[in-house]
């Protein structure tokens, strides 16, 4: 497998890839620049939107809406009218912002927070129900990042990046309760830091390694590394399955924390890449609101 350059988005901090099956498009964000991108796989004609706030995640909402996280709030964005409607406040903590997020099979949005100065333990991990009821599940989080549910919805895998670990939590779909089970994967710092991730139909985790120049496929049952798909960008931030057969992996990258010499060496940093895998992923869950 190899990563093919897809689009020169030149994101300072590309993140949040999401496959929208109804539009046959990949979405992703540039967090610090407040930009939302859409890449329709049929035409390749990219759409972009600019917001005044940092934008950290995008998922599918109801009808023609997307659900976005902007700074510390959640908004509904109408793709036809381009109207933005604020619907929930997750935190009101000076210096914090939201980060990665996904929806579970009940339509709850799970999203974590972090300090913009990366203060240790300043963040938390929340869910937002379909009735917009907020619940805090974890605190003392530093950089809340990747998450993925097993196909039977009995387990949630979650990353707080500086720990270098993927934690496994027992997950109750009906109540949304989580309970720590074990450390599923312990990643050596020599391979970079775990960031965003997704799961394939074989139950393996595809993890973007920030500073690790690739997407790594891990077995969460054994904790073993299976393979690496290298990228021509050191800071790989997230990945998501999509495409007609859910065999394509969209990968986001970042230009942040690279000096001018490094940017000349890795000019595609901040762009998005596509990997045609030998497995398949799952359709992402839309939000229930």
Automatic annotation (TrEMBL):
UniProt GO MF annotations: calcium ion binding; gluconolactonase activity
Annotated ranges, domain SMP-30/Gluconolactonase/LRE-like region: 13-255
Source taxonomy: Bacteria, Pseudomonadati, Bacteroidota, Cytophagia, Cytophagales
Binding-site positions, substrate: 97, 99
Cofactor binding comment, as recorded: Binds 1 divalent metal cation per subunit.
Keywords: Metal-binding, Zinc
Native source species: Cecembia rubra
BP term (GO), one: L-ascorbic acid biosynthetic process
Cofactor entry: Zn(2+)
Homology family: Belongs to the SMP-30/CGR1 family.
Residues the record marks as active site: 195 (proton donor/acceptor)
Stored Pfam families: SGL
Name of the protein in its database record: Sugar lactone lactonase YvrE
Chain positions recorded as a divalent metal cation binding sites: 15, 145, 195
